[in-house]
Specification:
Layout (H helix, E strand, L loop, with lengths): L12 H8 L3 H6 L10 H24 L4 H6 L11 H24 L3 H6 L7 H9 L5 E7 L4 E7 L4
Antiparallel strand pairs: 1-2
Main location: nucleus
InterPro entries: Myocardin-like, RPEL_repeat
Subunit structure: Binds PPP1CA and actin.
């Protein structure tokens, strides 16, 4: 009997998952299953030893945590006495100043054309000449490859 399909039907999700499943050897190498040649009790003992090592390591890290006073000195935590409505408004004001400063710096950062002019963005010389002359439509894409990576630069008519 002749098949109605030119190509075989696509594999089901189950078939794809079974193809991608790790082998028993890979699972044993990763410590998920016990090795084929060693008894399961040995594997369980090894796993419990690893868990206890991890637990000991975490207990050591918790014991060596810095005190709150050290964190305040390193300016990671704020002083507990500095809480209240006055402190909240001061914190909001400080954050607003930082946001304004960041927005100002973002507004003043150089555009792509300036970066090409200063040779910060590596482009081919013909692309650089075209960018300097302002040739192109409203948006022109220039694609070039440098020795280290490929770079795609967008120049809009507002930047040229």
């Amino acid at each position: 009997m002749m098949s109605h399909y030119l190509f075989p039907p696509p594999p089901t999700v189950l078939q794809l998952r079974l193809q991608q499943r790790r082998t028993r050897e890979q699972l044993a190498d990763q410590g998920i299953m016990p090795p084929l040649k060693s008894p399961a009790a040995f594997h369980e003992q090894r796993k419990s030893l690893e868990r206890s090592k991890t637990g000991d390591y975490l207990k050591h890290k918790i014991r060596s945590r810095p005190e709150k006073s050290e964190l305040v000195n390193m300016r990671i935590l704020q002083e507990p006495a500095a809480e209240g409505p006055a402190h909240d408004s001061q914190t909001k004001l400080k954050r607003a100043r930082l946001a304004d400063n960041l927005n100002e710096r973002i507004a003043l950062r150089p555009g792509p054309l300036e970066l090409v002019e200063k040779n910060i963005i590596p482009v081919h010389s013909t692309v650089k000449e075209a960018a300097m002359k302002g040739i192109g439509a409203k948006h022109s894409f220039f694609y070039t490859t440098s020795s280290s990576s490929s770079i795609c630069v967008l120049f809009s008519s507002t930047n040229i």
